[in-house]
From TrEMBL:
This is 4,4'-diaponeurosporenoate glycosyltransferase. CDD domains: GT_2_like_a. It is found in: Cell membrane. SUPFAM superfamilies: Nucleotide-diphospho-sugar transferases. It comes from the Bacteria. The keyword Glycosyltransferase applies. The keyword Amino-acid biosynthesis does not apply. Residues 5-111 form the Glycosyltransferase 2-like domain. GO terms for molecular function: glycosyltransferase activity.
Amino acid sequence: MCSVSIIIPTLNEASCLGRTLRQLSILNPAPWEVLVVDGGSSDETLAIAQLAGVNVVDCQQCGRSPQMNQGAKIATGEILCFLHADTYVPDDLVAAIETTLADKTVAGGGFISLMAGSQTTRWGVSLHNYLKTYYAPLLFRPHLFFKGLRLLFGDQVMFCRRADFWECGGFDDVPILEEADLCLKLVRRGKIRQVNRVVQSSDRRVAHWGALKATGIYLYIGFLWGLGVSPNYLKKFYEDIRSN
């Protein structure tokens, strides 16, 4: 069996990190290591991570891409798994990842993201996000779609072999859609697979925007990204809704 390093980029995630780390502590089989890579939190994020006994890394540059790259540099597992602090995973996450990558024709993968909160489950948004993994590459990169490209996004808990990650150059230093950009590089090394298992992500962004506005923003950003618009421009439509 391979060793899986779970990398969690954080910035002011005290409201959800504790639950996520408790869940990771009961995974069966257990991950090789869990690294929390912090971008300068001003809340209790670091204290929660330290209390949980996981590896805590201070990243000088705030942003998911540099934080995840920093975690990948420190990680010692053969497989890298990138997890958002507000996303909950199945108990057999490690086994599901190892089984997927046991197929040497697969370069990376992610899961089906079900978006939910304390009051509701966002079935419509979740369905659209599921379909987007397929229709976006088919629409914008059809030649790569038929070679196995699927576009994964942050809430889908992306994973790949550490060797492939670095041979592709890691995450590009962009403020948004870094996982989708990595998929475009990883597909040169093998297929990208959406595993038929569910992870649950917080609906805090949809709750803040409203379901209709959120779906419209996701469509708009995805369409412009597919046409090659800079992620730095697209970021202005994707406000940070975490506490400061």
